[in-house]
Amino acid sequence: MFERIAIVGVGFMGGSFALSVKSALSCQIFGVDINPQALERAKGLKVIHEGSTNIKELRSFRPDLVVLATPVGTFESIAKDLKECLSSETVVTDLGSVKGHLVYTVEEILGSKFVGGHPIAGTEKSGVENSVEGLFKGKRTILTPTQRTEGEALEKVKKLWELIGSKVEFMDPFLHDVVFGAVSHLPHAVAFALIDALLLLTKRTGIDLFQYPGAGFKDFTRIAASDPIMWRDIFLENRENILEAIDCYSSSLRTLRELISEKRVEELTQYLKEARENRLRIE
Ligand code: NAD
Q1: How many A from CA of 43 to the centre of ligand 1?
Q2: Which of 14, 59, 123, 194 is a Cys-bridge partner for 7, taking CB atoms 3.0 to 4.6 Å apart?
Q3: How many angstroms separate the CA atoms of 83 and 93, rounded?
Q4: In which band, very low, low, confident or very high, does the pLDDT at 5 lie, cut at 50, 70 and 90?
Q5: pLDDT for 192-235, tens place per residue?
Q6: How many other CB atoms are found less than 10 A from the CB of residue 163?
Q7: 96-148 pLDDT per residue, tens
Q8: Angle made by CA atoms 95, 97, 101, in degrees to the nearest 5
Q9: What whole-number distance in Å separates Cα of residue 99 and Cα of residue 184?
Q10: Cα–Cα distance list, 172 to 51, 100, 116 (Å)
Q11: Predicted local distance difference test score (pLDDT) of residue 1
Q12: pTM to 2 decimal places
């Protein structure tokens, strides 16, 4: 399948992918990262065999697969650097949380052997030291082929995900961004904003409210401990969809505010009942 795999961005996701692939496939793994400490840690943890801070070293490694696992805002410039280092046979894929225009931008640079991908697995943790072998087992991976994507490259990437236990689904890149803008990017925005609101309330009341959160608050805001750079890039790359989702959320919150403020007891009960029923439907 693939024998020489390069991971660009040896953090939590790149590291988890490397560990999962290494345990399923006999291959050499080369890591590229701007942070030399991440590479040292990755080597120490046996996540990668070799690594470099210089992407140009991929010329001599000659990978048959390159996996982009950096924050999505870096993809375009990394793709431009990669173009000069890869043979025309190399397949490139990514683990990024945004697809849409970004897939077409990277495809424009790298050509038809680029296959957009997004594993629906992860945590709020970052860094290679938190990598998990088996992170993708039983989890979905969305692949976002375009009209141009080469069939053979797509099939090979799909097989690799299946080999590490993931369930592959195909989706249009733009549809992906609408769906995950709503079910993933919006909840992260809300969690970050909720912490910000608690900071404002702390200032207003003069009480350190961060001393008092219970289990509900902790559950709800766990994802606000996620990496700021990664989420900055996701919000900016999926700007249109996240703005629409935030507007929709603001409208729901305004309705809730009105129902409470005007003591519309029945409508308030109905609002909460409907929310509860739909939440229970997920399980
Ligand atoms: P991370 O911060 O753990 O790792 C990112 C790594 O990329 C770091 O080691 C960093 O030094 C390196 N890096 C940054 N810019 C670079 C550059 N220009 N060149 C080379 N290396 C660079 O982040 P992560 O959680 O592993 O996320 C990586 C990607 O996976 C992101 O695109 C994110 O959207 C996607 N993703 C994350 C999750 C998750 O739960 N964390 C889930 C699905 C998809």
Answers
A1: 17
A2: 14
A3: 13
A4: very high
A5: 999 999 999 999 999 999 999 999 999 999 999 999 999 999 99
A6: 14
A7: 999 999 999 999 999 999 999 999 999 999 999 999 999 999 999 999 999 99
A8: 100
A9: 13
A10: 33, 8, 10
A11: 86
A12: 0.96
Angle at which helices 75-83 and 100-110 pack, to 10 degrees?
A: 10
Helices (H) and strands (E) in the chain, counts: 12, 9
Q: Which residue has the higher pLDDT, 209 or 283?
A: 209
Give nearest CA residue, ligand 1 atom 8.
Answer: 11
204 Cα: distance to centroid of ligand 1 (angstroms): 36
Q: 61-93: buried (b, 16+ CB within 10 Å) or exposed (e) per residue? A: bebbbbbbbbbbbbbeebbebbeebbeeebbbb
Q: Give the H/E segment covering residue 14.
A: helix 12-24
Tokens of 200: 């404002």
Phi and psi at 115, nearest 5°, equal: -125, 115
Place of tokens 């990664």: 230
Query: Helix, strand, or coil here: 229?
Result: helix
DSSP assignments along 69-134, one per residue: -S-GGGHHHHHHHHHTT--TT-EEEE--S--HHHHHHHHHHH-TTEE-EEES---S--SGGG--TT
Give the CA angle between residues 233, 239, 244 to the nearest 5°: 140
Q: Which amino acid is at 212?
A: Y
| pLDDT computed for residue 283 by the predictor | 76
For ligand 1, the distance from its centroid to the CA atom of residue 256, given in whole angstroms, is 36
Residue 15's pLDDT is 98
Residue nearest to atom 10 of ligand 1 (CA): 9
